[in-house]
Amino acid sequence: MTTPTPKRIAVTGAAGQICYALLFRIAKNDVYGPDQPVILQLLDLPQAQDAVRGVVMELEDCAFPLLVDTIITDDPATAFRDADAAFFVGSRPRSKGMERRDLLSANAEIFRAQGRALNEAAKREAKVVVVGNPANTNAMILAANAPDFPTENVTSMIRLDHNRALTQLAAKAGVAVDSIDRLAVWGNHSPTMFADWTNATSQDDSLSDMIGDDAWYRETLIPNVARRGISIIEARGASSTASAANAAIGHMHDWINGSDGKWGSMGVHSNGEYDIPAGLMFGVPVICTDGRYERVEGLTFNDFQREMMARTIAELQEEREAVAALL
Ligand code: NAD
Ligand code: LMR
User: Fold this and answer.
1) 19 a known binding residue?
2) Is the pTM of this model over 0.95?
3) How far is CA 317 from the centre of its chain?
4) How far is the CA of 55 from the centre of ligand 2 (A)?
5) Does the predicted interface ipTM exceed a cut of 0.90?
């Protein structure tokens, strides 16, 4: 049997907390699946290069059979060179006293520079997921600064919110997590996100009928999912790490290998579907098949859904205005 050509996987923020969980799962090959060798191309800031070297020593000490090489760099173009997939995890964290607008601008500069490097160096078919916050707007800036790179291949992560909603709904309904389908998380990865159970089913039965408690859905489920990231920061003094890495793996795994006809949620470039303003990077339900995602089409919205959509659209439009100069 011939060995497949290794896939090159670029990861930014390699010295950070999420990557300390993510890199080991990629190296074990939870993304492409068994028998596919991988090369990790790790980017972090100059001052973090020693820390990345330490992580790579640990990767080596795992003796992963499918990890055939590791590149460590502080140069984005080197990290993205010929990449088949890229996880954009690195970003500037919010520091004390920093306004959201300042955070947006600081990260916008990073994603503008990285967009240019992606444009120059990555394979055109590379699959990109942005995890670093504010993930949707960072992804929008990345795509805008990579004009020769297919916009469809730049996505942002809302999978963690999808997973959070799945677990909370399964517990309430008393069903298995993996029995649930047709859940959607719309919009921004922020407290305005909209976890939408309207079409959700468990074994083809309507989940909202099974739970039968609209007040719980509106007043508990939606805010709990939306605030889960903040609850984790309050409880552990740091933002989610292993669950964020797990969501990034799930996002990329399904995009590459397919989702068996099941709905997932991905932040994708809007072409104006469902009156979502064109150009926003927006969480929508998708089905993945053969290395492609397809937006779920033909859904209709009630007044409550329209109100929730309008809220998260307005926030993303504000974010877009704050970084307009970089687009
Ligand atoms: P972290 O601070 O531990 O690590 C970030 C890493 O990025 C650091 O090693 C830093 O040196 C690096 N970095 C900063 N600027 C860089 C640049 N220009 N190029 C390359 N690397 C750079 O943070 P973390 O806990 O790993 O989280 C990373 C990001 O993911 C944060 O923005 C966090 O808010 C976000 N996050 C997103 C989700 C989501 O669901 N989308 C969930 C959890 C966390
Ligand atoms: C999360 O959802 O856990 C994170 O995005 C929270 C954060 O602000 O880092």
Assistant:
1) yes
2) yes
3) 19
4) 23
5) yes
